[in-house]
Amino acid sequence: MINFTSNISELRSCIGVSFNMINFTATLKCPTNYGKVDNTNDNCTFAKIRFNHHGFVLGNHTIDSISIFSGKTLSLGANNTQHINNFSINGSCLYSFTTLQSTLAGTRATISNMGTSVDLDHMNIRDINAIGGATIHPIIPTIWAQFRWGISKWSKFILGWWLWKLEGIITLVINFRWPWWRMFTFRIRQRFH
Amino acid sequence: MTVTVLGSLEIGATNFSYLCGTYNFASSNTGNTNHLNNVGNSTAARLLFSGSGTWTFLTNINNSNNIIEQNNGTLIANNKTIVAKEYKSVLKCLHNLDITNSTLNLTQYFTVLQASILLVLTQ
Q1: Do residue A137 and residue A161 come from a single domain?
Q2: What single DSSP character describes residue B16?
Q3: Do residues B56 and B25 make contact, with C-beta atoms less than 8 angstroms apart?
Q4: Among candidates A5, A13, A20 on the partner chain, residue whose Cβ is nearest the Cβ of B106
Q5: DSSP code, position A42
Q6: Looking at the complex, does the CB of residue B79 fall below 8 Å from at least one CB of chain A?
Q7: Total structural domains in chain A?
Q8: A163 lies in which domain range?
């Protein structure tokens, strides 16, 4: 295991190297902090990369598992391809949306996933080309499941959801927008005896 | 200041915190050990492994103010925690870094020049 413990850390110049666990552990809430697998790396294999703050993955790599803290930004190299098996990059109501994007606006980064499903939730996704055999499953709106692996046009309409139980009453609240400039709240209450 | 070490090195806790400059581990033999007992102290020495031999750490290493540079040989972390500002490898030479069951804590960079060949064994 290799831990990068400062608020700006980089993995550099590794070609064809196999790593097990790489942790970027910066924790300060400063928008300029990041961990980076920079563009001098290529063709490396990672069992797990974990970003505790904003993260960059440049070069072309095979990653079994990648994770980033909710609400942060994961940037993948434009024109690079990452073969990623497992994702733990979801945003949340508490920490806001996680952003998955290319390092260069208008130029796509590619993610290849040959599995059967990918679950993404509370995500902003920009300039990402997804290929492979997986099906994307938005977690909250299960009625929208089974979208093809790609960028779902529906995910951007869900702003947040809350579910709680109080005095025998279960309440589900979903905030969504349609069209993009109007916000609605959908509320369901059900009493259980 | 550069100190060239041609075998094993053992330094007690009372001294190692004052280390600075460069310690060049230049042995071509296997079976070298580094016993750097700096518990509670952070050193600022450049630890340079330039020989083709093998070194095994017998203690945790806290060198957070300077780098570990390996350009040759085999470095075995041996279930220990190694702290450094940077791990760096700059020469085109086969060398091994074995951090199986160990932890490498870097405050900044892990750098290997593209022409180098590096094998990292981890668990």
Answers
A1: no
A2: H
A3: no
A4: A5
A5: B
A6: no
A7: 2
A8: 157-193
Q: Which of A6, A14, A20 sits opposite B107 (nearest CB)?
A: A6
Q: Please name the amino acid found at residue B112.
A: V
The beta-carbon contacts of B5-13 under 8 Å, at least 24 apart in sequence, are: B6/B51, B7/B32, B8/B32, B8/B33, B8/B34, B8/B35, B9/B33, B9/B34, B9/B35, B9/B36, B10/B34, B10/B35, B10/B36, B11/B35, B11/B36, B11/B37, B11/B38, B12/B37, B13/B37, B13/B38, B13/B39, B13/B40, B13/B41
Same domain, A123 and A55: yes
Burial class (CB in 10 A: 0-12, 13-18, 19+), A111: buried
Supply angle C-alpha B36, B42, B44, rounded to 5. 90
H helix or E strand, kind and range, residue A173: strand A169-177
Domain count along chain B: 1
Residuewise pLDDT in 10s, chain B (123 residues): 898 999 898 877 655 566 788 999 999 998 888 887 666 667 778 999 999 999 999 988 888 889 999 988 999 999 999 999 999 887 777 788 888 888 899 988 888 765 455 555 554
Residues A104 and A164 placed together within one structural domain of the fold:
no
> Number of A:B CB contacts under 8 A?
61
The label of the residue with tokens 């075995």 reads B76
Instruction: Name the residue facing B112 among A4, A14, A21 (closest C-beta).
Output: A14
ipTM, interface predicted TM-score of the complex = 0.79
CA atoms within 13 A on the CB side of A148: 6
Residues A71, A166 share a domain: no
Same domain? A8 vs A86: yes
Contact A11 B107 (CB under 8 A): no
Question: A136 and A179 share a domain?
Answer: no
For residue B9, the enclosing domain spans 2-122
Same domain, yes or no, for A66 and A95?
yes
Cβ(A46)–Cβ(A23) below 8 Å:
no
C-alpha distances out from residue A8 to A26, A51, A53, B85, B97, Å: 7, 11, 10, 12, 24
